[in-house]
Amino acid sequence: MKRITVDELEETLIDTLKSYGTKIYFIDEFQHTKGRNKEAIINMLKRSMLESRVPFIPVGMPNTLQILNLDDQLADRCKVEDFSHLTYWTLDDPTLADEFRKFLAGYEKFLPFPQPSNLSSKDMALKIFKKVEIRSWEKNSKGKYVKSPGTGKTNMRGIARFLKIVADNALKKDHERIEEEDIDSS
Amino acid sequence: MKFKHLNKETNEIMEKSKELKALWARENHFVYYDKAIKCLKRLEWIFEQAFIAQEDAFPSDLEGLSIIGDTGAGKTSIIDEFIKRHSSSYNSSYHDNYTKYCMLKDSDVGLKGLYTALLKPFNSAYIDAETIR
Question: Are A17 and A52 in contact (CB under 8 A)?
Fold first, then answer.
């Protein structure tokens, strides 16, 4: 079997990107870009992007930023903007609290109930937030695992998952809208 | 629309059975919140620019965008939405090769691992790490 070199692989990648007519390439879990020579990896990505003329979109955990910053040019070509740094939502920050409530309002448009549930109202939003607040499991003094106090933060995935369950419960009870009891019991 | 608090798609679901409504509620739905809208707008710009950048000129305008955030913050849903809206099934003028996606694994170590992962979405013959020296 013919063995190919990394140089040939780079050429193959560039040729493939060009010949397939790719216009945008998402590289998810970018924080897994690792190895003994991170600089070489970052250099290769920059070269592949420039030579293929296909924009790369690195996507990953916040430590992705440290990897990108190894090369000023790549960091400049693939900038992290304020809006592309996705953060958890909290009620302590007015902007993030507002975004959280807007998300609830947007999600409600997908929930098939004849009456508005007003999920984004202050009371309902607070009730939902308490249910979806991120908590971890901690060992207590008796060696048993218990849920930690809330972190004061929540994320989009957790909210969407919770609203699906709440909606399902409310539909099963033939409710005209999502009631507070549906949130409490979910 | 009969139900003004619902969107068009959900209004249509309101005419269906309880079972279909439950299925609809269980599906993943993309919500356009502020940061997501801005990300999608920038991705659209980058996508359109790529048609120009692939000319012979030096790619001075070639730019990407990094999307970062903790787990569950909504990164994947933004990408999914963009790819869905740029697929041939959504818009017949698009080719499915226009958007490509790869997910790096913890085991994709070093240059070889990275190339292997980046070539995989193209079903390349060079994805077998055993053949790489």
Answer: yes
